[in-house]
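Why predict the complex rather than its parts? Because the way molecules touch one another can change local conformation, and only a joint prediction can capture that. The input here totals 222 residues.
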Amino acid sequence: MTKETVLTIRLLAFGALSDHLGNRPIEMNLATGSRVSDLLVRVGRDYPAAESQLPHCMIAVNREYVAREYVLAGGDEVALLPPVSGG
Amino acid sequence: MQRIVEVGTEPIDLEAIEKNFSTPECGAVLTFRGIVRDHADGHVTDAIDYTCYDAMAKKELDAVVDRCLEAHPVSHVAVLHRTGVLEVGEASLGIVVASPHRAEAFACAAMIIDEIKKTVPIWKHEIGPDGKRWA
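Output of the joint prediction:
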């Protein structure tokens, strides 16, 4: 990917997903125009053990819940949130 | 109206809140404590490590309280969720709701608990003799 076609996001994983992606932010380069759904495909490829959990996750971008169609921008903080279990 | 919404590691103490919420117009002051129990899904539990998405948990809990107050207006509301490692018997969640009549207080408190379990980014990591497991 050339510099013009790349955006960098910061990926965070929580709950059971942190077992596979760790507790620290991961910087990830994606093609410009990538959607959350594209990111999830990439995460599933890079972290196969996490793949089965991804369809059940909610996604937050910059601390707001978003849909799979959401188009990402450079510098976004993307959080993968497995089903919550507070209370 | 008094409103308290907190996510933090400090022990939950509701007594002062109950006292402050007992204002003259309130005929109902309802308190709920969610307590760490000693078993879950057939496993023995010694403690639960509550983790959260710090930057988002308080904001989502505030949004839950907004929705619940819209659906069930009450006079005062407090919701406190604790994080970190909590032993069996410790409170992980405290809710105090005060209203003129009991129906609104019960309905509001019940909706708060239900909504917390849908959207507030907090997770239980149960600790027991079998090791740690995500709830």
